[in-house]
Amino acid sequence: MADEIIVAEDGVFRSLMARSFRDELFNETLENGFQGLIERYPQMIPGSQIAPGSDDPPRFAMLCREMPVGSWSLDFLLIDQYSVPTLVEAKLAENPESKRAVVGQILEYATNASEYWSNGRLLEKANSYWNSKGVSAEDLIWQLLDDDEADLDVFWERVEKNLANNKIRLIIASDEIRPELRKVIEFLNKETSTIEVLGLELKCYGEGSEFLVLVPTIIGQSQVVAEKKSTADKKILWDYQRLYDYYDSMEKRERADRLKCTLDWAKDHSVLIVEKKQYPSFSIKGNSGKRLMTFWHEGNVYCFLNVSYYDGGEEEVNNLVSELNKLKIFDYNPEGVKSGRTSPGALDELSKEEFEEFIRILEKYCCNIND
Q1: Given CB 3.0 to 4.6 Å as the disulfide criterion, which of 228, 269, 283, 337 pairs with 273?
Q2: Could you give the strand order of the β-sheet that contains 291-296, starting from the edge strand earlier in sequence?
Q3: CA 87 to centroid of chain Cα atoms
Q4: pTM for this one?
């Protein structure tokens, strides 16, 4: 990494020299100042370098600082929009632990992560950390997901699954990743199948504290390894024909038939909404013209329950929920819902009569049906 960078402003070029984290930074020195940068701005970790070429590279929210792992504590526990826990240990290069010893340290945290954080304990710690700061951890996750169809219950279920399967990300952050540490990181990231092991080198340039340039660089990621471990799948436009072809390829024929039947119904009644998604899905419009439901490829039904989606407000939401909950795959509770909920069961679990009743409910609450 260069000891200086060149800044061009109004046709004038000037150099900014590298600045040591030993100097006071944001009124803090040494590792406190360095760690403070990650706490204030988790996006300091460049997702586009972790998943190069991705349409939606990892974005991060911090769940907890000094996250307990047995009798130890991890510097930072972050999460990305794909529910992948990201463990960050920050050491300055002058710290003797910034060399190979820190690798063993973060691997030990990873080894014990599932034991200490599963069964809802990770969420409990995140809520406790942010509540002490007067902030809602749930709101942070909503901002991270930036998706009206997000289901926080599903998000946290995926976190638990990723913990159980060791699908996690380890990042060693430093102001300088020296060659001996770089080699270890590159080797581990190449050889591990589910765990990403990366370095984050964060350089600071400038004088004083009013104008600083921070340059983050991910160490240890190659394009080949990134593609092998990528959680950031590209989004696809699932139009009618693409969906129909996908359903034809499904092994669970009853589920495929129910999805095709609902898809055809939506198309015939002009309530079909096709969008770009990572996985096969389609939505339908309700009486307000806004999305009423989304149908996932696994046969589950996401229902929008926020009253802003309904012309009839809370009364219409409650009536819809009451009718749907009479069918065995649904168990919707609109209380406290920010956007919606996913059905516990799938369409193929309905009897023929129940599925016919489900279609009749859609006809009642979807627009243009009776026009």
Answers
A1: 283
A2: 272-273, 281-285, 291-296, 301-304, 340-342
A3: 15
A4: 0.73
